[in-house]
Amino acid sequence: MNEEETILVIDDEKQIRRLLELTLSASGYKVILSVNGKEGLIDAATNHPSLILLDLGLPDIDGQEILKKVREWYQKPVIILSVRDSEEEIIKALDNGANDYLTKPFRSGELLARIRAALRSGNDVSDSSEMTFGSITIDRVSHIVRKNNEILKLTATEFSLLLLLAKNSGRVLTHQYILKEVWGYGYIEQTQYLRVFVAQLRKKIEDNPSKPLLLITESGIGYRFGE
Length: 227
Known about the structure:
The chain is of the alpha/beta class. Helices cover 41% and strands 21% of the residues. The chain folds into 2 domains: 6-123, Rossmann fold (3-Layer(aba) Sandwich); 130-225, Arc Repressor Mutant, subunit A, CATH 1.10.10.
């Protein structure tokens, strides 16, 4: 059960709010419902939810603007639920700070899985120098990566790429964001360059690089580090 986890739903569709309330409550989450952007901002500030489910097509304030406003102070996960399915809209939301993006209609099982992953990511923030994901251990201070306690030989760039993805575990990062963070602004259009490095990294950390479980491709968008 998830009695300590509170999820704020910001959505103007009554049927969607009801569906989410039933689905989330059945899984043990406390649910707060907001019918528009203004109300959602107030509820986010006063109730301190563990996660926000945000619709983009709100009647008063566009969801992208709500996202940018909450990201000025809210550090916990935000998942977008929207009928907008264009690649441009998805990338914009992720670059504005969304952790994940699901298009409507969505499957309840998939939504709950994405919520669990996002909450794990939000709760795993730690001052510890080491992060562990299954058989993989990443030491942020010594820049050493181990798989099954054996040290992997990673280049400095491969380590930076892996660390960025791992620190954002469960969150979809766009190609442009990764390229900017690891290589700099001059590389933000070099998506093929990124694909080469991801392929190299998969060979080193994945048990089966052709069926990756850690470095997951979000087609046309970017990558997500899973567990």
